[in-house]
Amino acid sequence: MKLFIDTANIDEIREINDWGVICGVTTNPSLIAKEGRDFKEVIKEISTIVDGPISAEVISLESHGMVEEARELAKIHKNIIIKIPMTKEGLKAVKVLNSEGIKTNVTLVFSPSQALLAAKAGASYVSPFIGRMDDIGNEGMNIIEDIVKIYNNYNISTEVIAASVRHPMHVLEAAKAGSHIATIPYKVFEQMVKHPMTDLGIERFLKDWEGVDSK
Ligand code: E4P
């Protein structure tokens, strides 16, 4: 499973990219707004750090507007993936963009049938939102399992991005379900890397090393 970082914060992207564990970035309008900077500038800067798919989301709600925004965003860098909301207008935009060779990530996916339609329209990626499903009392991970199964049944090349990840268990469950990608917030990467036994082990090694003559 590939790992992306889900943030628009440059420091967070640099740090996790330096760990060598990510090969893509996802952003959304809320994450961009938190940075208080020009949207295109942020996306451009991200593309100088990570050499992989970088999702940038459109704001228009009708297909023509989405396509126009997408064409502009796609000019920023060859790695830009256009995030399109899962609506009828969104599907129309995906169809047009696909015919122009512009890759899309259909976002705000909450059901396997939405994911099937997105793939049929020509989406390169779909983003089912696990955490937000859990929030309303559903088992978010079931959607990942179902979508992976459906795509595998028909050799569909659209990749599943497990999104709205809230904790390390989401990442592990997504990997077990066969998700192609998980997009992970910085905080969750920090949680994944830590283990008290690792810290204790280092502490003991260093203490024992005090008694060694290493000159
Ligand atoms: C994914 O592409 C979205 O940006 C993100 O995962 C949404 O996560 P949230 O539900 O924590 O806002």
TrEMBL record:
UniProt-recorded Gene Ontology molecular function terms: aldehyde-lyase activity; transaldolase activity
Residues forming the catalytic site: 83
EC number: 2.2.1.2
Pfam families in UniProt: TAL_FSA (PF00923)
Location relative to the cell: Cytoplasm
InterPro entries associated with the record: Aldolase_TIM, TAL/FSA, Transaldolase_3B, Transaldolase_3B/F6P_aldolase, Transaldolase_AS, TSA/FSA_arc/bac
Role this protein plays: Transaldolase is important for the balance of metabolites in the pentose-phosphate pathway.
Annotated family: Belongs to the transaldolase family. Type 3B subfamily.
Protein name, as recorded: Probable transaldolase
Organism of derivation: Anaerosalibacter bizertensis
Gene: fsa
